[in-house]
Amino acid sequence: LMVAFIVCQVLLPTYTKDLECIPGFQQKVFHIEHSSALTVGQPILNLVFDDCQENHKLNFEVSSPDFKVEPNGALVALRNLSDAERALVIHAQSAWAEDTAEVLIVGRKEKSGSLKELLKAEDGLGNIRQRRSIVAPSLLIPENQRPPFPKLVGKVIDIDRPNGSKFRILGKGVEQEPKGVFKIIEGTGEVFVTQQLDREAIATYELQVEVTDVSGKTIEGPVSFDIIIIDQNDNRPIFREGPYIGHVME
């Protein structure tokens, strides 16, 4: 009885931890305040990913070449933040789980020629229009994902989107063959994949994203929006020798 009690005392904390663990990034969206103190080559953010199985074979991929993620989850800028992309998606995958997180750089002064620049182009009413900014970072999606579908894979953002306007994506995989592979939630910009993907068939989907008014008229965009398919090993492991005999002590 005493032995059973001790075993329960040892196993119960581990069992409780497993019940509380949710695989994936422990935070899905990060906002980095732009600052001159953030230097190239130094960690600017710590990403916490947990697959609830000790993160065996954990690997990070970043949608922007201006950044990298160290094995310990530290996000490092490879370029001055004033010149780097201001929105990126990070994909993490281990032997047991995978997930994506979004990182946005805020508070940065936009340079001339950026999407936030005021374009002094007069329309028919003589009003000055502001070209709003659609943030559509490239998405990295592993091929051969398991159901259920549709599966959330990313999000398109428009900082100054007018009330009542809608997101729309166009291109191969949407209204062009193969149709219906991707869809976007008009009101939120959330992008979903509806089926398994095969990188050998199509490695990159080059889409366009735009914002429309309630009548369907384009009021912003289109902006390029690439979805990149990540290669997975399609070959099952084969044991070429054997049989293998092992012993486990009670």
Highlighted features:
four-stranded mixed sheet; Immunoglobulin-like; single chain; mainly beta; 250 residues
Please outline what is shown here.
The chain has one helix at 2-20; strands spanning 24-25, 29-33, 43-46, 49-50, 59-62, 67-69, 74-77, 87-93, 98-106, 118-122, 128-130, 134-135, 139-142, 151-155, 157-158, 166-170, 182-184, 190-193, 204-212, 218-230. The model is unreliable at 3-8 and 111-131 (pLDDT under 50).
Describe the protein's architecture and organization.
There is one protein chain. This protein is mostly beta strands. The chain has two domains: 24-107, Cadherins (Immunoglobulin-like, Sandwich); 134-230, Immunoglobulin-like, CATH 2.60.40.60. The protein has one helix and 20 strands. It has one helix at residues 2-20; strands spanning 24-25, 29-33, 43-46, 49-50, 59-62, 67-69, 74-77, 87-93, 98-106, 118-122, 128-130, 134-135, 139-142, 151-155, 157-158, 166-170, 182-184, 190-193, 204-212, 218-230. The strands form seven sheets. A four-stranded mixed β-sheet has the order 2-9-8-5, with no helix packed on it. A hairpin with a 5-residue loop joins strand 19 (204-212) and strand 20 (218-230). The radius of gyration is 23 Å and the shape is globular. One of its GO terms (cellular component) is adherens junction.
